[in-house]
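Appendix B. Chain record.
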Amino acid sequence: MKSESKLIAGILIGVAAGVLAGILLAPQSGEDTQEAVADAASDFSDKFKDKFTDLVDEAEGLKESLTDKLSSKLDQLISLVSAKTGDAKDWAEDKASEAKDKASDLKSKL
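Structure tokens predicted for this chain:
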């Protein structure tokens, strides 16, 4: 994403420089040139705002997607831990019951 931002910035700067050079080198009166420069600056500003808005929207979409994925993975992890905890509890109860039975057998033998 960082390289995309640099590419977009480079393109916008190149376009602005080209427009400015074309305006300054064109055979126009000073007033016409000022108006053309103002129009070009306005167009550049509008394009920059549009690109920035697009980037912000894309970042928000990525944030939502990442949030959804993380939430899903967290739910899976909680389910897995819960299942493993239940398995461990059952195993411990079984072992405790076996130990109790063995202790009872030993007690009866003595």
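Further analysis of this model is presented in Appendix C.
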